[in-house]
Design goal:
By secondary structure, this protein is α+β, with helices and mostly antiparallel strands. The protein is 42% helix and 15% strand.
Length: 494
C-alpha cells in the first residue's frame, strides 16, 4: 500500500500497486482540447491540434510536440520515476539518467518485481561507508585538538566538505534536507568531524556569489576545503598590486573551525564604506593556539589572523548586496538560516549517539548497591523515553520546516519570512533538545560518564558547544518570539 508522508503526499509504491492503478480507459478524451474539463482545474486552451485520428500530434503552449502515444508513455513512466526520486532506484539494465531500459520492449509493471530493483547509493550511504574511519580517529582528534589527516581525507573524498558547491563548478549541490541528515550522521560518528563538515560545507555555499572564474578556480578542485568566520574583525583599505585592484587586510578571528586543513580561509573585514568577506589563501594566514576547550576539542576551532594580506577585489563579496552568480537553488536559500539549521544538525547527531551509547551501557551496568541493571531501572526507562521523544520531535520539526522551505525554492518561489522564522525556531529548539538529551544520557550513566575516556562525557560536552553558537543560542528565542507575535525586529541574519 502507498504510504503517505508530510502533506499527505505519496511516499512510496510497490510495482503491483502501480499496475493495479492503471485501469485502461478507451474513451475519447480529445474534447478537452476544445472545452474546459468540469472535473479538473485545468484548461487545454494552450494546446494546438495539428492532426487528426490515432496519430494526432499536438503542441503545448511552449511549442513542444506530443502524441497520444508519447503522452500515455509518460503517464506510465511517472510512477516509475517517482520510485527513482523517492528511493533512488534504477532498473537492471536501465539508463542511469532516465531509469528506462530501452532495449526491453516487453517492459510492464507486472514483469518487473520490486525485488529486482537495484538501490542507488545515497549520501547517507556514503557517510556510513566512512563512519568507521571517523570513529577510529575520534580519540586522536580529541587529544590533538584538530581533525587527523585520515578523517579529513575521508570527508574530502566523500564530498562532505563541499556539499554546497553548485553543480556548475563540479560540486555536489546537496539539497538542505539531505545535507542536514548527512551532517548529523557524520556527527554521530564524531561530533568534531560533524562540526568541521558543517562549517566547510556551509562556507562552500558562498561560492555561488563569487565571480564564476574565481569560484571555478577555488571550488572546482574537489580536494579544496574552505572555512572561516563571517564576523567583520578585519580592517581593510584599498590597494593594488600589478594593476590588480583589491584590499589590504589585517585582522584576527576566533572560532576558525577546521581552518588548519583549509586551502582558502574567509574572514569578514570593514572597508571605508562596507563590510566584505575576503578569501585568503592558507599561505597568508597565521594560526594562534587558543583552542583549549571542554567540547568539540577535535574541531581545531582556534584563532587565526592575517597581517596586511592583499586580497584581489574579485576574491571578495558584500554579504546581502552581492547577487549570486551561479543560478542554483542553494543560492536562493537564506544563507544564515542554512547555517543555523546545519549547526543544529550537529547537535542532533551528537545527541543521537549519546542515547545510543546509553542503551549499550544500560544493558550491562549495575549501579552500586543495586541488583538491577540500568536498563531495568524504572527511572532510566522514564527518562530515556522522554529524551527520545524530545530528540525525535526536534529532528522531525527541523527537517519538516527545512523541507517545506526547500520545496518553495524548487518551485520557483522565494523563502518567506514566516518560513525563515519557523526554520530558526526549529534550529534553536533542536540545539537545546540535543543538549538536553545528551545531559540525560550522561546523568543516567552515573560515574562512568565523568572520565575523559567516556564517549558519553564527550557527547555531553560537544552538545553544549552547539547551544553556544550565535546562530542557535537559546537567547534567539526572544527575537523569534517577538517575530511570532508580529513585533518588529532585525531579521537581516535570518
Amino acid at each position: 500500500m502507498a504510504r503517505k508522508g508530510r502533506s499527505g503526499r505519496l511516499r512510496s509504491w510497490t510495482l503491483d500497486t502501480v499496475a493495479d492503478a492503471l485501469t485502461p480507459d478507451d474513451r475519447d478524451w480529445t474534447w478537452v482540447l476544445d472545452r474546459p474539463c468540469p472535473r479538473l482545474p485545468i484548461r487545454c486552451a494552450g494546446v494546438r491540434r495539428v492532426g487528426n485520428g490515432s496519430d494526432t500530434t499536438s503542441q503545448r503552449s511552449d511549442g513542444a510536440s506530443f502524441t497520444v502515444d508519447s503522452f500515455a508513455r509518460y503517464l506510465v513512466h511517472d510512477p516509475i520515476h517517482h520510485l527513482w526520486d523517492v528511493d533512488g532506484c534504477v532498473w537492471p539494465g536501465a539508463d542511469e539518467r532516465t531509469g528506462w531500459d530501452s532495449s526491453d520492449a516487453s517492459w510492464s509493471p507486472r514483469t518487473h518485481s520490486r525485488s529486482r530493483v537495484e538501490r542507488m547509493p545515497t549520501l547517507l550511504d556514503t557517510v556510513a561507508d566512512i563512519a568507521e574511519v571517523i570513529e577510529a580517529h575520534a580519540d586522536e582528534a580529541e587529544q590533538d585538538r584538530r581533525l587527523p589527516a585520515g578523517t579529513v581525507a575521508a570527508l574530502v573524498d566523500a564530498d562532505l566538505m563541499r556539499m554546497c558547491v553548485p553543480a556548475v563548478y563540479g560540486g555536489p549541490e546537496v539539497a538542505p534536507p539531505e545535507m542536514i541528515e548527512a551532517i548529523s550522521a557524520v556527527a554521530h560518528a564524531d561530533g568534531a568531524a560533524g562540526w568541521c563538515s558543517m562549517i566547510a560545507s556551509t562556507t562552500s555555499s558562498l561560492s555561488a556569489y563569487l565571480p564564476a572564474e574565481v569560484a571555478a578556480r577555488i571550488y572546482g578542485d574537489p580536494s579544496v576545503v574552505t572555512g572561516g568566520v563571517f564576523a567583520p574583525n578585519g580592517a581593510a583599505h584599498e590597494d593594488s598590486v600589478d594593476d590588480v585592484n583589491g584590499l589590504r587586510v589585517t585582522g584576527r578571528w576566533a572560532w576558525g573551525s577546521g581552518t588548519q586543513h583549509c586551502a582558502w580561509i574567509i574572514g569578514g573585514a570593514m572597508t571605508s564604506d562596507s563590510m566584505r568577506l575576503c578569501w585568503f589563501p592558507a599561505t597568508d594566514v597565521s594560526f594562534i593556539d587558543t583552542w583549549h576547550t571542554g567540547g568539540m576539542r577535535g574541531s581545531g576551532s582556534l584563532d587565526y589572523s592575517v597581517d596586511s594580506a592583499f586580497v584581489p577585489i574579485d576574491h571578495t563579496i558584500v554579504p546581502g548586496v552581492t547577487p549570486p552568480v551561479a543560478d542554483c537553488g542553494l543560492a536562493r536559500f537564506p544563507n544564515f538560516t542554512l547555517l543555523a539549521c546545519s549547526v543544529a544538525s550537529v547537535g542532533l547527531g551528537v545527541a543521537r549517539r549519546a542515547l545510543d551509547e546509553l542503551g549499550d551501557v544500560a544493558q550491562g551496568k549495575r549501579p552500586q548497591f543495586s541488583s538491577r541493571t540500568l536498563a531495568q531501572s524504572g527511572f532510566t526507562q522514564i527518562e530515556l523515553a522522554r529524551a527520545e521523544a524530545g530528540l525525535r520531535s526536534a529532528r522531525a520539526f527541523l527537517l519538516d520546516e527545512v523541507s517545506s522551505a526547500w520545496e518553495s525554492v524548487e518551485g520557483g518561489d522565494q523563502v518567506t519570512l514566516d518560513q525563515r522564522i519557523a526554520m530558526r525556531l526549529a534550529a534553536t529548539h533542536a540545539a537545546s533538545a540535543s543538549a538536553s538529551a545528551a545531559d540525560v544520557a550522561y546523568t543516567l550513566a552515573g560515574g562512568t560518564a565523568v572520565y575523559e575516556t567516556s564517549l558519553l562525557g564527550r557527547c555531553m560536552r560537544d552538545a553544549h558547544v552547539v547551544t553556544q553558537h550565535i546562530q542557535t543560542a537559546p537567547k534567539l528565542n526572544e527575537k523569534i518570539g517577538r517575530l511570532l507575535l508580529g513585533l518588529d525586529d532585525d531579521t537581516s541574519m535570518f
